[in-house]
Amino acid sequence: MSAAAPVLGDVIMQATDVEKRFGRLQVLKGVSLDVRQKETVCIIGPSGSGKTTFIRCINHLEKIDGGRIEVNGHLIGYRERNGKLVEDTERSIARQRTQIGMVFQRFNLFPHMTALQNVTEAPIRVLGVNKKQAAEEAELLLTRVGLGDKCGTYPGKLSGGQQQRVAIARALAMKPALMLFDEPTSALDPEVIGEVLAVMEELAHEGMTMIVVTHEMGFAREAADRVVMMDDGQIIEVGPPQHFFEAPEHNRTKQFLSKIL
Ligand code: ADP
Ligand code: MG
């Protein structure tokens, strides 16, 4: 762990016994995880183990079939009525999502908007920030991700790495309490992966609370407070990054690491 690692705060994300089925396929089999303020947790594990599904459940892009997820002490996607969980209204779910930034494998920028407009869109439309203030904040954010000179550029003229950094700035513009990343560098050309990881590493060191699905173990080593190994819909091992490099406990973890390292 970095010497500059921030002191961790209260629990920001609490998943308890989360279950998820797609038809008869049970994809999450009771996943529990607490993530504290300023903590960076990396999730690793084989393809199909449920990593993306778990991340998507955290901002209720997927409904859950059991358990509960709280962010900042508020139940996500549901409200409690007579001891039962009932799905929340769209409006209320949308409000909860504003606290959670999400960066996907594919950047999904609006192609007809400049980098700056991509970043100001949600703060203006969703939070009601005035245009001038949103533009000033967006410029600062784009500068922070190393793209201060690309504010007026359209996504089509940016490299994949630059587009992904715009996507990070766009998520940060909502001032989220929690950032979720799902394999943010796996669709990128190798030569631009480093610039995206560097931005994420800086965010982690600045104290952003982050859950990152990634197999970039160099990033995990530098930025993660804890690494979580998922296999077959369950968390099978959790520990600081060095634990995974030096002494993983489970055979599944050892096998998996031997393939990716
Ligand atoms: P990972 O991100 O670890 O590769 P996923 O969460 O994407 O794993 O997928 C876990 C399992 O759930 C896989 O078997 C996948 O095929 C299945 N799955 C994911 N999304 C859906 C869906 N929308 N409908 C049906 N099955 C799905
Ligand atoms: Mg996935």
How many runs of DSSP E, i.e. beta strands? 12
Radius of gyration: 18 Å
- Sheet with the most strands: spatial strand order: 8-9-10-3-11-12
* Largest sheet features: 6 strands, mixed
Oligomer: single chain
Mean pLDDT: 95
Bound molecules: adenosine-5'-diphosphate, magnesium ion
Strand content: 25-35%
Terminal CA distance: 19 Å
Order of helices and strands: EEEHEEEEHEHHHEHEHEEHH
Question: How helix-rich are the residues, as a percent range?
Answer: 25-40%
**Separate helix tally:** 9
Write down the overall geometry: globular
Low-confidence stretches: none
Structural class: alpha/beta
3D structure, described in words:
- The chain has 261 residues and is α/β, with parallel strands linked by helices.
- It is 36% helix and 27% strand.
- It has 9 helices and 12 strands.
- The protein has helices at 51-58, 90-97, 115-125, 131-144, 160-172, 190-206, 217-223, 241-246, 251-260, and strands at 11-22, 25-36, 40-44, 66-71, 74-75, 78-81, 84-87, 100-103, 178-182, 210-213, 226-231, 234-239.
- The strands form 3 sheets. Strands 8-9-10-3-11-12 form a 6-stranded mixed β-sheet, with helices on both faces. A 4-stranded antiparallel β-sheet has the order 2-1-4-5, covered by helices on one side.
- α3 (115-125) crosses α4.
- The two termini are 19 Å apart.
- Adenosine-5'-diphosphate (ADP) binds at residues 22, 25, 27, 45, 47-53.
